[in-house]
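Notes to self after the call with IL:
- keep both proteins in one doc
- input above output, always
- annotate only the second one for now

Protein 1:
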Amino acid sequence: MTESALQPTRGLSSLRSCALLMAIALVVFTAIAALVNGNRFAAAGVNAALVAGLLVSLGMFAALWISNLAQRDRKAIHYGLAAQLVRLACPLIGAFVVEALNPTLAEARLFGCVLGIYLPALLVETWLAVRMISPTNPSEVRHG
């Protein structure tokens, strides 16, 4: 192992700081969805928003972890594509499964909550992933 691999990363390029920022963003987006959906569908709407927040969180944190792996590899594009797949598949497939198993959440527009949380969280997560993958110093770029 090289010496640079043993040193912790700092700033927004570390997984810990990115996960913290993503968690804050997801809590805010989920709370907004719960307020909006709770006004329309009462307790079922709040439950739908909370389940949607959980589904989106699973996908986003898994994608951040995969993007973090790209820091150690020259073929970061493969990790970026895998992160996109996980980021999209977890919430959408999860929403379809939960709606099929729980019609009450389907009536409370679970899928709409997933999209309402997913889309703004996607902006935050993509920005954080680019910060993690991109080298902060041009001399850090490995060629070949």
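Protein 2 (the one to annotate):
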Amino acid sequence: MLVTQFDVDAVRRAAAERVVRRVGMCNSDLMATSEIEAAVREKKPEWGRLLDDFRDAYREWYEFHHGVEARGLAGKLTQDLAEDLVARTNRRNESRNALIEALGQ
């Protein structure tokens, strides 16, 4: 798999920082990603929900891929697994688009 846990964490951090800047809390330096997410939830709950949805969808998509590789099924998905992958990919993309749209970007 080309995406690593580091990449997942980096995407989570980038999303949190983008949202926190739009919330108006510019100084997120030296804050853990979970602290930034909590601050967003407190200041703008609807954006916090969108951020959480994106984080969860991205993580679930990644964990699915990781599990497929761990079982040696990369490139050999059954119809059910392929459909599951498509659903997870769609959820990831839709949650990302919803977050971007809410931020007005």
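Annotation: Residues 66 and 72 are 10 Å apart (CA to CA). The first helix runs from residue 5 to 23.
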